[in-house]
Amino acid sequence: MFQPYASWLSSGDNAWQITAATLVGLMSIPALAVLYGGIVQKKWAVNTMMMVFTAFCMTLIVWVLWAFKMGFGSAWIGTFVGKPSAIVGQAGEQAQAVIPSLKGLMPNFRFPEGSLAYFQFVFAAITPILFIGSVIGRIKFKVWLVFVPLWITFAYAVNAFLLWGGGYWAAKGALDFSGGYVIHLAAGVSGFVAAAMVGPRLARDREKAVPNNLLFIAVGAGILWLGWNGFNGGDPYFAGADATAAVVNTNLATAVAMMAWIIMDMGFGKDRKPTFLGGVNGMICGLVGITPAAGYVNGVGAIAIGAIDSVVVWALFAYLPRKVWPFNKVDDALGVVYTHGFAGLLGGLLVGLLADPKMIVYLGVGKQASVTTAGLFYGNPRQLWIQAGAALTIIVWDAFVTFAILRVIKFFTPLRMPDEILVAGDIAIHGEVAYPEEEPDLEPARGGIPGEPVPEQSGHHGGWVDLDPEKVG
């Protein structure tokens, strides 16, 4: 007689955790590869996709060898970071999952360590992928390959331990349900610092920054939105009522934020027109803003976060790049510091106001109280100060680490590609392009009817091919 499950394992919780992780993985590949690849000029589409996929690969390798335990293992340097170790053995994949510093403070996990490790990996991977948008169109590909593993080790793993792994800010009660600070604020800050150090795109590229494929952007944005159900819905770690609340709040905040941005464009934008790209920016603001709050706020809080995040970021996007240093000096190509940095910061502060103690994260048993949280509007003003302190820590630490890593790399190689490479783009870097242009085929189709015109083979020009041998050479 054999059993498929260990006594502690819940097939439902395990299935949901793996499914949620896969949804989050889809947010990176293909969603951000297609979204960012469609927004950039066509000469940078391949480079963008390569940066996305290689970041995903490199993060997983680093994650299983040492970084997962730095973020979710036993405390190593005080309450700052966990002790690095590998999880490539049997226990790292099949033993019962545990976060040592949180043991006894939440229900015991009912899935294996491998499920926890993979779920947290896709969060780690998407963070540097997000700030590709800040440096696209000029950072050396080889620099990116060196930078990502170092950044995951010294920035992301520390962020994760501080807020999720039982570190300093977790012990203080900081709220970051699914990564408003650990992921989005970190991506905005690091992307902005990296953009400043790498330098701007070519002037001609900045002037002609026209998306190459709006349909690809729509596909990427749609997968990103629905993938966020795993992003926020998987973070209670159990397929319970709080997971449902997180999913509902995520979609509600996103819908409100997208419409708020579109309305702002129509009422106050330069051309007073609703644009799809503008709507996508609003969508992202809603997704990012609700992320730190998804399971802590009620539906009214979700609506407020979506509206406030979108309107404030819209205003910052319209004003800061034109008027305020250093935002008017740094070429953040896709505005990551706005749609992720500021949006994540706002969401994290708003949860300090709007966290509803009636929203139950984990049910208490017997006389044990249920796990809930409360913000300033529900009688806990201290929460807002805790949120601000955690945000400041992420900002300072990630800015310092990003600067230090790139400064060291710069001793060995320039961070920015030469101008002649920037002019050519993908073909010079990777030897391939996203939209190859075929030469016209002027030979008549075999088997055609003599004397009848033959449709041109190229597809680039309309009309017919002249079959007179003297004319076609």
Brief digest:
With 473 residues, this protein is mostly helical.
List keywords for this structure.
1% strand; 473 residues; Ammonium transporter fold
Strand order of the largest sheet: 1-2
Listing every helix as H and every strand as E from the N terminus to the C terminus, the arrangement reads HHHHHHHHHHHHHHHHHEEH
- Gyration radius, in Å: 25 Å
Do you know the CATH topology of the largest domain? Ammonium transporter fold
What best-fitting shape do the alpha-carbon axes yield?
globular
- What is the assigned CATH homologous superfamily of the largest domain? Ammonium transporter AmtB like domains
How far from one another are the termini? 79 Å
Helix content: 55-70%
Q: Kindly provide the name of the CATH class of the largest domain.
A: Mainly Alpha
Number of strands: 2
- CATH hierarchy: architecture of the largest domain: Orthogonal Bundle
Average per-residue pLDDT, rounded, comes to: 92
